[in-house]
Amino acid sequence: MNPGNLLKVAINALKRNKMRSFLTMLGIIIGVASVITMLAIGQGSKKSIQDQIASMGSNMLFVMPGNMRMGGIQQGSSSSQRLTVADIKAIKAECDAIVAVSPEVRSSGQAVSGSSNWPTTIYGGSEQYLDIRSWTVVSGRNITDTEAEGSAKVCLVGRTVADELFGEGIDPTGETIRFKSIPFKIIGVLSEKGQNSFGQDQDDVIIAPYTTVQKRILAQTYIQSIQMSARSAEESDLAQSQVEEVLRRTHKLRENEDNDFDVRSQEELATTMTSVTEILTILLGAIAGISLLVGGIGIMNIMYVSVTERTREIGLRMSVGGRSIDILLQFLIESILLSVFGGLIGIVLGFAASSIVEALTSWPISVMWGSVILAFAVCTVIGVFFGWYPARRASELDPIEALRFE
Predict the structure, then answer these.
(1) How far apart are CA 25 and CA 338, in angstroms?
(2) CA–CA gap between residue 239 and residue 236 (Å, rounded)
(3) Which of 32, 44, 29 has its CA nearest to residue 361?
(4) How far apart are CA 16 and CA 13, in angstroms?
(5) Where are the alpha helices (DSSP H) in 109-181?
(6) What does the pLDDT read at residue 2?
(7) In whole angstroms, what is the distance from residue 323 CA to residue 331 CA?
(8) CA 121, 92, 257: angle at the middle one, nearest 5?
(9) Best-predicted range by mean pLDDT (28-42, 139-153, 218-232, 387-401)
(10) What are the backbone dihedrals phi and psi of residue 127, each rounded to the nearest 5 degrees, phi first?
(11) Which of 1, 29, 77, 198 has the most CB atoms in a 10 Å sphere around its CB?
(12) How far apart are CA 21 and CA 282, in angstroms?
């Protein structure tokens, strides 16, 4: 029997039991749709995190206080007071791979304007802080180093803070707000950034001169972190080693002593987050792939039932000259058709489900064509794998016994 006739016979056999054929395909449909949707969610998260990190600058570096030991007791990074303005001056003078550097201090509290108040975070930095953090001013101006040196009570506000304190879309430049009872004159409004990958509102910020936050709000002389920009992303490693060398010297650390600070680059953060999201994507794909396996088992089960139901038909075909290979191919083609049709429907459903998830949850979605091809290829292989044994069993039936079967 030629392949065309085998295909027609297989299609007619599936048409005779439309509902059973559809229910058999359902496992494959759900499996393929799940794989596409889950991988789209994982890939979307990965892309979103990479975009967020890239928006902060691939050449960004930062120094955080490291763990300290006092009297043999580990103090933790939060108790370190080793980062100072002197460290920043040394980095500026000696690290030629660094093009911008700024101290950073921060505090949380209530911002108040008239009868309105809003819980937010105030960040203290220098004139270069906005460039390092990829912020721009859409109204007003940036803070200056002169204002930082004089601990001026001026600030920049994010769009969220401006909307909550003054009303939607109003430009508050020139107005005065209070943060922990300290008055700040608004000299500019920051451009909108929206939420980051962790759900944090990047527009819910106030930025002021770091000395003002240090002296008037935190009452401390040390700084909490140092933000920097390398000359280029390619020179981040060089900049990192230069900063580490300078800080070890300014902190008077011996060769056998560990650093009391941590120098990190944006590239390190991107690599770490990418590896985490890749593991998450693989995990989601593996969980969804289980449903494909279940769908394959369903195909095998139904093909066994089909062989049993059509035993007399098989015997009749063999008695009129049908070969074992023809019987095997007939049932194998039926199994493959169930998988292929189920896979095609699953692909359409997977795209639809991904769009629905994105619309309902605002979760970033990115459908990969690789995942579509992979899911379809796997469901085809499943059709061959799980359909082979029932088809082989059908081809090995004895025609005399098959004709006697009731």
Answers:
(1) 6
(2) 5
(3) 44
(4) 5
(5) 129-132, 145-149, 159-166
(6) 66
(7) 13
(8) 85
(9) 139-153
(10) -60, -30
(11) 29
(12) 31
What's the CA gap between 29 and 124, in Å, rounded? 54
Pair of tokens at residue 351:
């795209």
Enumerate residues 6+ apart whose C-beta is below 8 A from 230. 59, 60, 61, 97, 98, 99, 236, 238, 239, 240, 265
Tell me: the pLDDT tens digits for 212-223? Answer: 999 999 988 889
User: pLDDT tens, 130-183?
Assistant: 988 888 999 999 999 999 999 999 999 999 999 999 998 899 999 999 998 899
For residue 266, what are the CA distances in angstroms to 53, 93, 229, 234?
Answer: 7, 23, 10, 12
Cα dihedral sign for 141, 146, 149, 151?
negative
Give dist(CA 181, CA 283) in Å, integer: 50
d(CA 384, CA 190): 59
- How many residues would you count in the chain? 406
Question: What is the bridge-based pairing of β-strands 60-65 and 225-230?
Answer: antiparallel
Q: Is 71 left (phi over 0), alpha (psi -120 to 50) or beta?
A: left
For residues 351 and 362, give the distance between their C-alpha atoms in angstroms, rounded to a whole number. 16
Place of tokens 């080693």: 241
d(CA 372, CA 37): 10
Q: Are 380 and 336 in contact (CB under 8 A)?
A: yes
CA–CA separation, 306 vs 347, rounded Å?
27
Q: Which two tokens stand for residue 180?
A: 């922990």
Q: What are the tens digits of pLDDT across the range 313-348? A: 767 777 766 677 777 777 788 888 888 888 889 889
Structure tokens at 382: 């499943």
Report DSSP state, residue 192. Answer: P
Distances (CA, A) of 183 to 74, 155, 208, 213: 38, 10, 11, 12
CA 134/CA 59 separation, integer angstroms: 11
Q: Which of 160, 153, 159, 193 is nearest to 177 (CA)?
A: 153
Separation CA 388–CA 374 (nearest Å)? 21
Q: How many CB atoms lie within 10 A of CB 279?
A: 11
d(Cα 128, Cα 13) in Å, to the nearest integer?
A: 74
- How far is C-alpha 147 from the geometric centre of its chain's CA atoms? 39
Helix (H) or strand (E) holding 153: none
